[in-house]
Amino acid sequence: MIKLERTATALPAHGWQLLPLRFHRLDADSIVLTNLVGEHVFVTPGELSAVVDGTCADQDLLARLRAAHLIQVPGETLPAELLAIKLRTRMRRLPDSTGLHIFVVTLRCEHTCRYCQVSRQSAAKNEFDMTEETARRALELAFRSPSPQLKIEFQGGEPLLNFPLIRWITAEANRMNSEHGKDLAFVIATNLVLLDEEILSFCAEEQIHISTSLDGPQDLHNGNRRRPGRDSWQQAVAGLRQVQERLGADRVSALMTTTQASLGRAGEIIDTYAGLGLRGVFLRPISPYGFALRSRGGANYDVGRWLEFYTDGLDRIVELNRQGVPMMEIYASIIAKKMLTNADPSYVDLTSPAGIGIGALVYNYDGDIYASDEGRMLAEMGDRTFRLGTVHGSSYADIMLSDALLNPLTESITLSAPMCATCAFEPYCGADPVFHHATMGDFTGHKALSAFCQRNMGATPWS
Amino acid sequence: MSPADGVPGAGGEAAGVGGLDAAEITLAFDQATVDLDALQRAAYAVAAEMTVDIRVCGADYACTLFPRMRDATDEELRHRFRTEVNDQILRARIAKETEPLRNLVFALAFSRTGLVDGEAEGPV
Q1: Nearest-Cα residue of chain A relative to residue B109
Q2: CA-nearest residue of chain B to A419?
Q3: Domain A100-380: what homologous superfamily?
Q4: Among residues A22, A27, A103, which one has the least CA distance to residue A69?
Q5: Of A402, A438, A454, B64, which residue is most buried, by most CB within 10 angstroms?
């Protein structure tokens, strides 16, 4: 019988050297150390001092730090090589841009949501629909992306109001993909009101994923998401059940938006999701863009109140999990994935370089191209900073090499941004030049005053 | 004493520093032991709680703290700023010690990726 024995050699004082690391004080007694790729170890202030000074005699701690590539024995080459491989793995999305292509097939919508970020149009105004010619040109640009995976997401307005174009784009994308051979997927972001048998059959046939909006309990949802008949929640739930039955539970997900009315109701929201058979909830703060900023938009709460709401929600999820109910919070799962693996969840808001353009491109109904959906929302309010060009005349090179894309990307990289560069949570966080431009007037933002930074500094320790 | 615990000679009360208003919340840091860069980084990091005026006073940097809100005592603000300065000193020390390894890791990570001029495969 082979007996495995621990053969680690004890490190003498000053017998190690630091690898690049950053630290963050969680409280008076606890500090988290992270390396370049987010591997981490918790220490006390005294332990940090002893490790940095070379006087630490705690061999267990030194072994943990060595395993997490926070220290190495002088002369070793493997830690640097392994860190490089992990870093490259994290960054592999960069040469494989752009995976997500959002087609705004119409601005029309039959809802009048309080927090709607775009200038929705009445359901009768066809001039706000994307045309086949615009869609064809957008598809040609989308297929220029080097990414081996292409996800085409249909948005609005309410995209099902222009369902014929969704059919056309899907067929055309499949036809074009016979030459390109990419891993092609489709998503419809819909409120589900217009769902019918024809649409369900189409989604089943094309294996389309459905993303819908559900703000929680009926009164909360219907208060936020208004439509004639005041039955948005009933319609969404009926549609959700139809999709779950016809397409499968894993083919539909829901998103909620936190308004002032949501605060204090995290548990109810999560219980509503669990009751409907959903296994994930995204406790999203309201976006500071577009029409959501109007006084009646529901955005008048600060980061501190959102964090209370968020942590209440996480407590409820843990409680449900302990009862055997599967449920996760999407934002926490993204951060946890970044903490515990070298995979990049490719969530546009939590990547650096930022996900704008290289993670997602948005084709508006009129052919204008934006670096992100939030960039489109800003344009609805008259700020066209993130407009990269138009499908009617801009080449792929024009778009991807435009100052409108490269300036915010280069100015916001977290490895060189003040505070971010030395922040222990940097590997879990991201640059969000659109948010900082919208809220602070520059792409980098002053992180000590940034709601984005405060939110992530608050949420990360809970994840 | 290590930088994680405090910096010798750093962060004393500014009594006796000429030209300062006694009512102001002021800390003095010995220029021999504290870099201006650490003070500036600390001032940046605490900007949500206070703004900081940094001036040279003889052999010291005199840092005057201006709280944004009056929900912390003067002593709490001094502790907060001193702690941040000490953390920035430690961060600078770690960054200096590990810079060659950091550069090595990045060089290893981004070699042979096709991202270097002449190797690019065309998204454009």
Answers
A1: A84
A2: B45
A3: Aldolase class I (3.20.20.70)
A4: A22
A5: A438
**Among B80, B93, B103, B105, which would you mutate to test the A interface (most chain A Cβ atoms within 10 Å of its Cβ)?**
B105
> Which residues on A lie below 8 Å from B121 (Cβ)?
95, 146
Euclidean distance between the first and the last CA atom of chain B, given in angstroms as a whole number? 56
Domain spans in chain B, listed from the N-terminal domain onward? 12-110
- Best B94, B96, B103 residue to mutate vs chain A (most A CBs within 10 Å): B94
Indicate whether A199 pLDDT > 70.
Answer: yes
Cβ–Cβ under 8 Å, residues A268 and A313: no
- CATH topology for B12-110 is Gyrase A; domain 2 (3.30.1360)
pTM score of the predicted model: 0.88
* H runs (alpha helix) in A143-209: 163-180, 197-206
User: Between A and B, how many residue pairs show a Cβ–Cβ distance under 8 A?
Assistant: 102
Quick: pLDDT tens for A336-385: 999 999 888 888 889 999 999 999 999 999 999 999 999 998 998 899 99
- Asked if B27 and B66 count as a contact pair (C-beta separation under 8 A), the reply is no
Does this complex have an ipTM over 0.85?
Answer: no
Distance CA A393, CA A378 (A): 22
Residue A462's pLDDT band, with cuts at 50, 70 and 90, is confident
**Cβ–Cβ of A446/B47 closer than 8 Å?**
yes
Q: What pLDDT, on the 0 to 100 scale, is given for residue A345?
A: 87
CATH 3.20.20.70 intervals, chain A: 100-380
Considering just the CA atoms, what is the radius of gyration of chain A in Å?
24
What are the pLDDT digits (tens) for B24-66? Answer: 899 999 999 999 999 999 999 999 999 999 999 999 999 999 9
